[in-house]
Amino acid sequence: MTALIGDLVERFERGGLTRRELILALSALLGTRGAAAAPTAESSGLSAAGIDHVSVLASDLERSVDFYRRLLGLTVLGEDRAHGIVRLGRKRVLVSLRKEAPYGTVDHFGVKIEDFNRGAVTAALSRLGMEAHENWQYGYYLKDPDGVNVQLL
Fold this sequence. Notes:
By secondary structure, the protein is α+β, with helices and mostly antiparallel strands. Helices cover 29% and strands 33% of the residues. It has an eight-stranded mixed beta sheet with strand order 2-3-4-1-5-8-7-6, with helices on one face.
């Protein structure tokens, strides 16, 4: 699934997908949340339960909120005015908008880990020679090989 998400983000960043097409494709992946892949010998043992949310950098929050309301029927579920963030969804957040350049960029995507436990995730990443970091923007995250922020939650 990581390769598929990476391909979608790359196509969006190169202009091959509109923001609408990207959000619709990522939303469709939410339907695969129940289908967990069996761990392989090279796997961390962590099981992704689906895409939790996508964070988009927007030039005009009001205009972007209106776009996602009209397109997907999303509503504002929360705001962080100090950081210029609006979180949209239905029952849970699907799209997080942040007023920050470079506008029109997918800033990060959050992956929901089944039975998330920070200690277990840290240990699993350590076994793979990977390390997660924390900050206010991405929470608990690591970068993929091309520098995309992948938030784990």
